[in-house]
Amino acid sequence: MKKALVVLPTYNEAGTIKKLIEDILLQNQKVTNWEIEVLINDSSSTDDTAKLVKELQKKYFKKIYLLETKKEGLGKAYHQAFIYAIEYIQPFVIIQMDADFSHNPNDTPLFLNEIAKGADMVVGARYIKGGSIPKNWGIHRKILSVFANLTIRFGFMKLNVHEWTNGYRAIKIWLIKDALDHIKNYSGYVFQIAMLDYAIKKGAKLAEIPNNFIDRKYGKSKIFVSQYILQILAYIFSHSSFIKFIIVGFIGFAVDFSFAYLFINKFHFNKPSANMFSAEIAIISNFLMNNFWSFKDKKIQGGVFSYLFKFITFNFVSSGSIIIQGVGLSLALRFIADKTIHLFGVANISSWIVYKILIIAFIIIPYSYILYNKVIWKKK
Ligand SMILES: Nc1nc2c(ncn2[C@@H]2O[C@H](COP(=O)(O)OP(=O)(O)OP(=O)(O)O)[C@@H](O)[C@H]2O)c(=O)[nH]1
Ligand SMILES: [Mg+2]
Asked: Would you give the DSSP letter of residue 29?
């Protein structure tokens, strides 16, 4: 028998906590290979949440654990619960669940099933077939949830991970132990994103199962929306290798342009050689910035030779994008049009500028990002 521990963070959930714990413990009758227990981290609720848990503890001997802490946010509450679980309970897997019945306790066997099949982390996903968000949510709440998930998905360029913010999950204890240092920095709701991001970067095996999120009937929501949005954006900016890769691209463009200007105007190089030198300087600086910043989790390992080899490959990939731009531009000019476009009667731009921007956005960026990930900064 393996132990599965359901962790419930609570703040004023007296309306639901008793029935929820009993429903979770009832799941023991449905699973054969698991022993399900519950840990509640109550952050100084001002209602009877902790008192009700203590009453239940007497009824269900040694199946219910209670931690009582200060109120410091959801991420902090999970972090405290994880540390307690690792030290005193040693489960094989932890299931995270909201305590307001938004997550149906009857689904816990489905999560355990995926864990038994080999997943390291199972996410209850509302944005896959079979999953859903509450129909009665106001339109602003629906938009917020959908957009938050899309922003994170595209911000990290992890298109096959559909759910980032839902808190119904099962995570193997080794992965939690491993992630403790990373997630302790995120005390609010953004902790859920930080945990999943860490699991992906670790190469953990992920599974998504459909989840129907139910609107709470009792108690009040604790989310502070504008703060949450800012935390999400800050997290993506500091942790997405894709965003950093785009920023490096812009810096590379500036480096190329500045050096070309310098060589031509100050050192009187001829224009073609000035541009060749400036392009190579930009390639070198892009290579270094990508290695030590954008893809720092997958930094090139080994000695001088592996650096040299990767650097030469990087030059090939960069030459590829120059060729793609050249060929793409000449095809567009020839088969679409080579003319001046009048922008709403206020400005004129040449069509080649539009083509160049489109080629960079839709061909060069995916081309380079995919090759960097698959060839130069491969996952170890
Ligand atoms: N221990 C602890 N639990 C918290 C804290 N903040 C939120 N929670 C719990 O975390 C879970 C999710 O919080 P909710 O306020 O329901 O957030 P939500 O589910 O996104 O929003 P609603 O369902 O609309 O309320 C609930 O069980 C809360 O009681 C906290 O600071 N400490
Ligand atoms: Mg809730």
From this structure: G
Helix (H) or strand (E) holding 261: helix 241-265
Sign, Cα dihedral of 317, 318, 324, 327: negative
Cα–Cα distance list, 345 to 256, 342, 348, 349, 353 (Å): 33, 6, 8, 11, 17
Domain 2-238 class, CATH top level: alpha beta
Among residues 200, 135, 204, which one has the least CA distance to residue 162? 200
Rounded mean pLDDT, 286-307: 95
Pocket of ligand 1 (CB under 6 A): 9-11, 13, 41, 43, 71, 73-74, 77, 98-100, 102, 216, 221-223
Give residue 26 CA to ligand 1 midpoint distance, Å: 23
Query: Residue 180 CA to chain centroid, in angstroms?
Result: 16
**β partners of residue 93:** 4, 172
**Residue with token string 């609720």:** 45
CB distance 251 to 293 below 8 Å? no
261-272 core/surface letters (b: 16 or more CB in 10 A; e: else) = eebbeeeebeee
Interval 17-39 mean pLDDT: 97
Q: What is the pLDDT of residue 61?
A: 81
pLDDT digits (tens, 9 = 90+) for 365-374: 999 999 999 9
- Mean pLDDT for the stretch of residues 333-344: 88
**pLDDT for 218:** 87
d(CA 305, CA 223): 51
Closest ligand 1 atom to the C-alpha of 215? 23
CB-facing half-sphere around the CA of 81: CA atoms within 13 A: 29
Domain map (residue ranges) of the chain = 2-238, 241-376
Residue 40 and residue 76 in contact, taking contact as beta carbons nearer than 8 Å: no
- pLDDT band (50, 70, 90) for residue 66: very high
Give the pLDDT of residue 130. 97
Q: How far is the CA of 210 from the centre of ligand 1 (A)?
A: 21
Pairing of strands 121-125, 169-172: antiparallel
What pTM does this model have?
A: 0.91
Out of 6, 7, 11, mutate this one to test ligand 1's pocket (max ligand atoms within 8 Å of CB): namely: 11
DSSP 117-134: TT-SEEEEESSSTT-B--
